[in-house]
């Protein structure tokens, strides 16, 4: 068998595993090799390659100490495997839910930064709905209520993309109501998703993360 520098070995003098050709050379400074060596040339120094064995299925799979086969006179890799305990299952589920809710918050933040689409003058524009934007909409609503339905004032408004338009009282009120309702619907969709995550009985039942809550 050809042994390379990344081939795991076992040292028979103390049973240490894994060791590598770098350890062999450190223990035997007078020995010189190339990029590999044949395993039979290592035997006299007490170094043996460990034959890899396929990793078994299982929730928790851990490599064990190598096993010596008396018949083949070779060392083989060993594994132990087991299912998750109930405590581990619960902890993994909680961790997965926490991560999914964190990811959902990132999607929500993206939606808030992108803004609510609002149709005007035959085009669709975006109204941002971050904290100060909501405060601005509420301020506009107060002004509209104070001016009254019969107001002939012109109300300027600037969308995210920089487009500026002048609105009548009726148009401005429709924008404020439409955007705030869309924002509320956005939050309801987000909250409903969080509820689905919280109520998921297993990791496989956690709903996929949407691209947007809009």
Write the layout of secondary structure elements.
Blueprint lengths: L1 E3 L4 E3 L4 E4 L1 H7 L8 E3 L8 E5 L8 E10 L4 E9 L3 H29 L1 E5 L2 E5 L3 H17 L7 E4 L5 E4 L1 H31 L15
Parallel strand pairs: 5-7
Antiparallel strand pairs: 1-4, 2-3, 2-5, 6-7, 8-9, 10-11
Helix pairs in contact: 2-4, 3-4
What does the model show?
With about 210 residues, the protein is α+β, with helices and mostly antiparallel strands. The chain has two domains: about 1-80, no CATH class; about 85-205, no CATH class. The protein is built from four helices and eleven strands; from the N terminus they run βββαββββαββαββα. It has a five-stranded mixed beta sheet with strand order 3-2-5-7-6. Strands 1-4 form a two-stranded antiparallel sheet. The mean pLDDT is about 95.
């Amino acid at each position: 068998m050809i042994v390379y520098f990344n081939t795991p070995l076992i040292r028979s003098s103390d049973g240490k595993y894994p060791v590598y050709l770098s350890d062999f050379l450190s223990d035997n400074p007078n020995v010189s090799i190339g990029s590999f060596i044949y395993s039979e040339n290592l035997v006299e120094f007490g170094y043996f390659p460990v034959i890899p064995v396929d990793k078994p299925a299982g929730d928790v799979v851990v490599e064990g100490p190598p096993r010596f086969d008396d018949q083949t006179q070779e060392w083989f890799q060993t594994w132990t495997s087991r299912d998750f305990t109930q405590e581990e299952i619960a902890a993994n589920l909680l961790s997965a839910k926490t991560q999914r809710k964190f990811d959902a918050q990132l999607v929500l933040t993206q939606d808030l930064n992108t803004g609510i689409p609002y149709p005007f003058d035959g085009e669709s524009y975006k109204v941002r709905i971050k904290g100060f934007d909501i405060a601005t909409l509420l301020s506009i609503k107060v002004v509209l209520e104070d001016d009254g339905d019969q107001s002939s004032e012109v109300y300027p408004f600037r969308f995210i993309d920089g487009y500026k338009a002048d609105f009548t009282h009726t148009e401005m009120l429709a924008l404020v109501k439409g955007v705030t309702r869309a924002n509320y619907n956005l939050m309801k969709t987000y909250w409903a998703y969080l509820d689905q995550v919280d109520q998921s009985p297993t990791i496989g039942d956690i709903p996929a993360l949407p691209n947007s809550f809009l």
